[in-house]
Amino acid sequence: MATVESSSNLTPTAGKIKLQGKYLSPLVEYVNSLELRDDMFLIAPGPKFQALKESMARVFDPHIEVDDVQSIVFRQCIQFERKWSGKRSGALSSEENQDLRDELIGQIKSFFESIPRPCTLRLSLPSFPRLAGPVRRVAEDVRFVSVAAPPTENKLRGGPLSLLFSETDPAPDTWLELMATGYADHSPNSRTAAECLSMAKQCAFVLTGLGLCTTHWNPRRANATFSDGASEPFYAMEIPEAVQRLYGRLQINESKLRVRGSAPKGTESDQTLLTEPDREPRSDEERLIAIDNMLGPLRRYFNARSEQDFQQVAAAIEWYQDSVYADNDTFAYIAACVGLEALIGSEDEHLDSLSKRLADRYAFLIGTSRKDREELRQQYNRVLRVRGELVHGKAARLAPKERSLLNTAQMMLMRLIWKELNRVWKAVES
Fold first, then answer.
1. Over residues 174-197, mean pLDDT
2. N or C: which end of the chain has fewer CB within 10 A?
């Protein structure tokens, strides 16, 4: 049987599964089919391997999929092979190799039983100031940290992590740290890494949308490191170019840094009878307080995750960010439309047959008068018509005369996101 024991992972309800009986059997049968030889890899594709992949994916759902199982087994077998290649050989099912068989079964079993693993993605913030002190917490799984570039190995490039940074672009002091439980194979496309990147896009949307941060052009690029366990080292991770640009340029809007209370003793303002309830910081200490205050709306955003419609808003934000930072106008347009559908569509509806209903929903959500709603309805229908032509192959790309509709679609999506987000906040805080 597969038993579950309590765990102290990030998610309080997370549990560790122990493989026993019929759930362990596919692993045992697969390892018994392997043969350790110097002239071939210790991997045996076939029915037993397929049965192992399907079984582990079911047992550890929703943390891993079939492809993840394959990646895990490959990595564990390669590590095992490096240890014993040239020293031992033969079928692992043979009596003389029983110790090797048991070792490999235990090694693979132990890794699977460590799932869900506490994974952490760090994004460098080269345009951010250093934040004194170790942590600026936004949520249980989102925080800003001040650390030197960790002296770890670059798993993808085979060199020290410091090689990611040139002498003219030194390792940044401030990082955004995002945490999730599950499994990731050091690829940004793996489920848990993608979950962390999604949170990063949401952070940037809130900070820039409220004007707390800006993304003025500069040549800097963010780098990422990733750890797939509480005691595991950080390794370099390649992240999408759009995220590199976004976080490379992200910087604090100095005009938004405010502190509350009277001015410090001995200053000119202190000589008056009036206090300043909201003013600019006047010392390094006050500046750190102001930065912490600036993160308040971001804390408010993640505190709303318990609201039933939060996930739709979060999905729409990710589609918006993908649209705005896409290199291809056609993809950017479709992404904006998908973001709109995330907020006003439903799972059992087909866009083509219900475009009028979607336009009505958008108009009534945003519009403030009958005339306003009619204009919004027509606007949405224009956007939707071009979306249909692109998706159904009637047009290969946006026509020059239709490119203005890309900005229209993005503005529509942003407006709707903030409308829904404010509704979510009101529901949570009422």
1. 91
2. C
pLDDT at 162: 40
Residue 80 amino acid letter: F
Confidence of residue 160 (pLDDT cuts 50, 70, 90): very low
Residue 425 pLDDT exceeds 90 = yes
Q: For residues 333 and 330, what is the distance between their CA atoms, to the nearest angstrom?
A: 5
- The answer to whether residues 402 and 388 touch, using CB atoms and an 8 Å cutoff, is no
16-25, 229-238, 259-268, 272-281 — which one is most confidently predicted on average? 16-25
Contacts of 160 (CB under 8 A, 6+ apart): 151, 152, 153, 154
Task: Please say if the pLDDT value at position 391 is more than 80.
Answer: no
Identify the residue with better confidence: 400 or 73: 73
Extract the tokens encoding 420: 């829904």
- Which class for 9: exposed (0-12), middle (13-18), buried (19 or more C-beta within 10 A)? middle
Predicted confidence at residue 328, as pLDDT, reads 83
**Per-residue three-class SS string for the chain:** CEEEEECCCCCCCCEEEEECHHHHHHHHHHHHCCEECCCCCCCCCCHHHHHHHHHHHHHCCCCCCHHHHHHHHHHHHHHHHHHHECCECEECCCHHHHHHHHHHHHHHHHHHHCCCEEEEEEEECCCCCCCCCCEEEEECCEEEEECCCCCCECCCCCCEHHHHCCCCCCCCCEEEEEEEEECCCCCCCCHHHHHHHHHHHHHHHHHHHCCCEECCCCCCCCCEEEECCCCCCCEEECCCHHHHHHHHHCEECHHHCCECCCCCCCCHHHHCCCCCCCECCCCHHHHHHHHHHHCHHHHHHHHCCCCCCHHHHHHHHHHHHHHHCCCCHHHHHHHHHHHHHHHHCCCCCCCCCCHHHHHHHHHHHHCCCHHHHHHHHHHHHHHHHHHHHHHCCCCCCCCHHHCHHHHHHHHHHHHHHHHHHHHHHHHHHC
- State the Cα torsion 254-255-259-262 to the nearest 10°: 120
